[in-house]
Design goal:
This protein has 310 residues and is α/β, with parallel strands linked by helices. The chain is 44% helix and 17% strand. The relative contact order is 0.14.
C-alpha cells in the first residue's frame, strides 16, 4: 500500500484525491495546496465520504509541499488551469516555475518517491521535472492516458460495444500532437479492420480523431474544466505504478529522438510499474512512429522556450 501526496487540490487534484481515497492500494493521502485552507477542507470532505462508505485511508493535509515526508509517489497537479480559447502550451511559462519549485521542495524529504506529473503542458513539465530531479527520482507524466480513454469512449459509441471490450491507445503529445494508434485497435481481440468488415460498419476515422482532440474544449466550455475523466484515467496509471501491474498503458516517459539534444517526455504506450521497458514502438506503423517523433519535436520546442526561464 502506498503513501501518495497530491500537490494542488484544484479541480483535477481534488477529484483525483477523492478517487484515490477509495482504492485498496492507497494507505495514506497527503494533500497540499498554496491555498492551505482549500487542501485542509478538501481532506475533511473526503474523510466524511469515507466515513459513510467504510474506508479508512489516512488523509492528511500540509500547508507546503516542503512539509511532505515519506511519500511513495508525489503527484504534481499544481498550476494555472486552461480557460476557454487557451491551448495547453500557452500554460508553459506560467507553470514551469511552479513545477520546478515543487520538485526542489520535495526531493530531500522523499528520497524514494516517484513523481507523477499532471500539470500542463504535461509532457514539457515532466521533461522539466526530470531535469530538476537530476536522476534522483523517477519521473513519469500522464501523457496521453486521457486521450486514450476518450478514444475508447468514442469507439465504443460508434461501434455500439462496451468500452471495456476495446483495446486502443493514443501516443505522442497530450493535446495538439496526440496520435491515435489505429494499427493497435482491437475489439474483443479482433483487429479493428477485420471487425469492421465482419460487421459491415463504416467507421468515420476522422470524426473519432476530432473527438479525441476537441472534446476537452467542449467540457471546459460547459463545466469550466475537466475533472472526473482525468481522475479516472490517472488513477489507473497510478494503480499500475503502485501495484507493479505490468499493464500496457498510455503514459509519458523520457525517450531519445533523432534531432533532439535531450531526452523528452512523450507517450509511447508501454508496460507500467515494472523494470521491463517494453513498449509498442516496434509494433506500430512507420507513419505512426513518424507522427510520434514529430510530437516529440513539438514537446521539445515547448520545453526549450521555458528551459532558461526557471
Amino acid at each position: 500500500m502506498a503513501h501518495i501526496a497530491v500537490v494542488g487540490t484544484g479541480r483535477v487534484g481534488s477529484a483525483l484525491a477523492y478517487t484515490l481515497a477509495f482504492q485498496h492500494w492507497v494507505r495514506c493521502l497527503t494533500l497540499t495546496d498554496i491555498n492551505e485552507k482549500l487542501a485542509r477542507m478538501t481532506a475533511e470532505e473526503i474523510c466524511h465520504a469515507m466515513a459513510m462508505n467504510g474506508y479508512d485511508t489516512e488523509i492528511q493535509a500540509d500547508g507546503k509541499a516542503s512539509e511532505i515526508e515519506g511519500a511513495d509517489i508525489i503527484v504534481i497537479c499544481a498550476g494555472t488551469a486552461r480557460t476557454p480559447g487557451m491551448s495547453r502550451r500557452d500554460l508553459a511559462a506560467k507553470n514551469a516555475g511552479i513545477v520546478k519549485q515543487i520538485v526542489v521542495d520535495t526531493l530531500d524529504n522523499n528520497s524514494h518517491a516517484k513523481y507523477f506529473v499532471i500539470t500542463n503542458p504535461v509532457d514539457a513539465m515532466a521533461t522539466l521535472a526530470e531535469h530538476v530531479a537530476e536522476g534522483r527520482a523517477e519521473v513519469i507524466g500522464t501523457g496521453t492516458c486521457l486521450e486514450t480513454v476518450r478514444f475508447r469512449t468514442v469507439l465504443a459509441r460508434e461501434l455500439k460495444v462496451q468500452a471495456r471490450r476495446i483495446e486502443c491507445y493514443v501516443g505522442g503529445e497530450h493535446g495538439e500532437s496526440s496520435v491515435p494508434i489505429w494499427s493497435m485497435v482491437s475489439i474483443e481481440g479482433i483487429p479493428l479492420l477485420d471487425y469492421l468488415r465482419a460487421h459491415k460498419i463504416a467507421l468515420d476515422f476522422k470524426k473519432c480523431e476530432e473527438y479525441v482532440r476537441n472534446i476537452s474544449v467542449a467540457v471546459i466550455e460547459g463545466t469550466g474544466g475537466t475533472r472526473w475523466g482525468p481522475a479516472g484515467a490517472f488513477t489507473e496509471v497510478l494503480h499500475g505504478l503502485v501495484c507493479n501491474t505490468g499493464r500496457v498503458l498510455a503514459f509519458s516517459r523520457s525517450r531519445v529522438f533523432e534531432g533532439i539534444p535531450i531526452p523528452v517526455h512523450v507517450t509511447v504506450p508501454g508496460k507500467i510499474g515494472t523494470q521491463n521497458s517494453f513498449d509498442i514502438w516496434s509494433y506500430i506503423t512507420a507513419e505512426e512512429r513518424e507522427k510520434i517523433a514529430s510530437a516529440a519535436h513539438d514537446i521539445y520546442e515547448t520545453y526549450r522556450k521555458i528551459e532558461g526561464t526557471v
